[in-house]
Every structure is written in C-alpha cells, then in structure tokens.
Design goal:
Length: 446
C-alpha cells in the first residue's frame, strides 16, 4: 500500500478521488482550481515542440538509412488509414444498431444557435480551403514559427528535413547530433520535473469539472455517452487487441505499462499532457528512435481512432434525434468526409465540435444546429476520445515497429513483463565516444 501511495500512479488516483470529493462538497471552491489543470497542460505543451524535434532528428540521423525512415513513414500512413476507416465504420454501425438518438424528437427551431457560433466559425475556416489548404498549412512560414505556435505537424516536417540533411553530412554532422542529443536529455529532465506536478494538474481538472457540471450531468444524453464508451472499449480490446496479438504482444500488459499516462489523460482529457512520457516509454520498450519519433507525432493528427468513432456516431445521433431521414448515400458521405476532416483535429480549439461541424457542413441532409445537443456531454465523451486516441497511437507505434523490424522483442517482453522497470533517466553521456550515444531507453541493434 505504501508503494502505491508513493508512486506517481497512486498519487494521480488519490488526486482524482480528492477532486471528485471536493467538487461535490465545495463546488464553488473546486471550480476555482481550474488553473491547476490548465497550468500543468501548458507546462507539458511548452516542451513538446523541442522534444519532438530532438527525438525525430536524432532518430533519423542515427538510423543511417533514409530508405528505412521512408518505409516507416509510408507504412505508418497505411496503418493509420486502415485503422481510422475501421473506427469510422464502427461508429456508423453502432449508431445504426443501437439508435441512441431515436425517440428524442428534437425540434431544431427550439435550439439555441448562439452556443454554436464560435465552433461554426472555426469549422468554416477548417473546410474553406479543402485538402490543398490543409496540406499547405503543414508547411511553416519560417523554421522558428512551428516552435512558437506548438504546431506538432509543422515541427515534424522541419525535423524530418533537418534529420535527413544531417544524416548526409557524415562526420561533419556529428557535433550537431551530439548537441541535439544533449538538448533532448535536458528536455527529458525538465519533463521529469513537470510530471511530478501531475497530481496537482489532475486535482484541478477533476475538481473543476465536478464542481462546474456536477456528476448528475452524466444523466443528460446518457445513452449517447454509454454507447460511445462501449464502442471505444470494443475497438480497443477487439481491434487493437488483435493488432497487438498479431505483433506478438499483449494489449493488457501495454495498458498496465502505460497506466500512469492513462490516468493523467483520464483526468485532463488531453493526450498532449503525456506526449513526452509516452515517447520516452515507447523508446524504453525497445522501439527504434526514428520509428517512435515519426509515428507518435504523426499519429496525433492522422490516427485518431476514438475521435473517428465519435464523428460518425455523433453525426448519425443528431440525424436520429432530429428525425432526419438519412440514406445509404448519406452514410457513405459521412464516412468519406470524416476520413478527411478528422485529419485536421489536433490543435484546433474545441476540436471535437469543430470537426463534427465541418463534417456536417458537407452533408446538408443533417441539420448542423443539432450539434447543440452534444455540447453538454462533450467533456465526458472527451475522456474516452483522449484515452482511445492515446492507446491507438501507442499500439500503432508497436505495430509499425514490428512491421518494419524496428523493435527489440526481448527488451519489449522484459519491460511489459515488469522485469525491466521503466525509467526516464538518461544513460550517461560519453564525451569521448566517436559513435552517437543513443537516447535514453533506446537499445542499439545491428
């Protein structure tokens, strides 16, 4: 019991329970603790751009084979498209089978459109330029801009170019590689300091939510929330479980290995809050640096499994709740449009509602004003979205690593079995070594 209480996981769980109690007992005070959760997430986001840059550049420069890096990228994109398509299809299937919106008989003329104005405005901006505009936004205006704005995809693009150029410099590039290696070690040390504040962040986030909305708010539109949670659970344990089994690993053991990160995501409803720790843990699992560095940041925008389930489920729910008839063509249109709009989710304020609005704008048959119906339960659905997305991206990294032969299976099994405890502490740097010193958690392989 003492070991549990002193562990980060135990402290996070304690903070979560305390937040619920405080929210119920003193909602006015609890609502004022929101800055604790916001500050924790901001601290994490502060180091994400530099950390992603260092991991990706070091991974590519250390790989020595740009063709291998290219294969990882292509395989990752193929995997993302297959899995997100399955997730979108699952959302449609569940919505048509369980009909969570049937019987609500909502008159759209009675809904308050003012609550949707900000979301619809962002949706218009998101869809105004189409696919070309989305791709153009991946290119930063300057090399420094993505670090200032925190745009992970732009950082990733610059890091890939930087890493490829650095790998072609040979001996001349080694001083830069060592500098990036040293910088990454500093960033991981900073991460170790920040993550100790996770219990405070969890306390603030949970206390605010319970104090502001109350536990009873779960009753409203409870069927939609229940169906969504069940759908995410089915996708995680059935689909992702099979993927892990095909790769030769256990999903349950992976979830146990990531329990601290999952607890933080559960409380903050943000997978960004654990991105640095996830990168470190997957590298400690024995997955090659370049694979982790490419798959995880890219997956945060292109592999949103639970988010994909949400889009199609919510779209059909709104149609059912407003008694809007939808044809097979409409269902296929939802699937096709969501394949595109879901890729722009990361980094958009109120992303879930915004992306759903963008999807519905492309399907006139469904009244977009119906989005008001899901606003009140969006936070609760956000918990499952964040958890499902994080698990999906971790499984994707393992799958792509196994597919490309970039995972040390002996190391991975030892870590998942608890024989090699996870550690974010970097290995000592040898300043006299001629070879690049591997980042912490990565085991060199011939």
């Amino acid at each position: 019991m003492r070991r549990f209480a002193t562990s980060l996981f135990g402290q996070v769980v304690f903070a979560l329970v305390l937040g619920v109690i405080l929210g119920l007992a003193a909602p006015d005070i609890a609502a004022k603790l929101k800055p604790l959760g916001d500050a924790f997430i901001k601290l994490i986001k502060m180091i994400i751009p530099v950390l992603v840059f260092c991991v990706v550049v070091h991974g590519i420069a250390g790989a020595g084979d740009l063709k291998r890096v290219g294969r990882v990228g292509v395989k990752a994109l193929i995997y993302f498209e297959v899995l997100t398509t399955l997730a979108l299809a699952l959302g449609l299937l569940v919505a048509m089978v369980f009909k969570p919106g049937a019987g609500m008989n909502i008159d759209t003329s009675t809904l308050d459109a003012s609550a949707m104005s900000a979301y619809m405005s962002n949706a218009d901006k998101l869809t105004s330029g189409g696919t070309v505009e989305f791709l153009m936004k991946l290119i930063p205006t300057t090399a420094v801009n993505p670090f200032a704005t925190g745009d992970v995809l732009q950082v990733l693009l610059f890091a890939v170019l930087f890493g490829c150029a650095l790998s072609q410099l040979g001996e001349h590039g080694k001083p830069v590689v060592r500098l990036i290696d040293a910088t990454s070690r500093v960033m991981f040390k900073i991460m170790g300091i920040i993550i100790r504040l996770a219990p405070l962040g969890v306390l603030g986030a949970v206390a605010f939510t319970v104090g502001q909305y109350g536990v009873s708010s779960l009753k409203q539109l409870g069927m939609l929330v229940l169906v969504f949670y069940a759908s995410v659970a089915v996708f995680v344990f059935a689909v992702l479980g099979v993927v892990m089994r095909v790769c030769g690993f256990s999903l349950i053991k992976l979830l146990r290995y990531l329990r601290e990160e999952l607890a933080v995501v559960f409380a903050t409803t943000s997978s960004d809050s654990v991105l640095p720790q996830v990168i470190a843990k997957l590298r400690h699992l024995g997955i090659r640096d370049s694979t982790v560095g490419l798959v995880i940041p890219t997956g945060y925008s292109f592999n949103l499994d639970a988010f994909s389930i949400y889009i199609t489920l919510a779209a059909v729910f709104i149609a059912q709740a407003t008694n809007t008839p939808i044809s097979t063509v409409d269902l296929l249109s939802i699937l096709a449009v969501a394949l595109i709009t879901s890729k722009g989710a990361h980094g958009v304020p109120g992303s879930a509602i915004v992306i759903l609005a963008a999807t519905l704008q492309a399907i006139p048959a469904i009244p977009a004003i119906g989005l008001v119906l899901v606003l009140s339960v969006d936070w609760f659905m956000g918990i499952a979205r964040a958890l499902g997305n994080l698990i999906g991206n971790c499984v994707a990294t393992v799958a792509v690593g196994a597919w490309n032969g970039d995972i040390d299976r002996e190391q991975a099994h030892a870590v998942l079995d608890g024989k090699r405890p996870a550690s974010l502490a970097p290995a000592p740097v040898d300043p006299e070594a001629d070879d690049v010193v591997p980042l912490p958690g990565y085991q060199s392989r011939a």
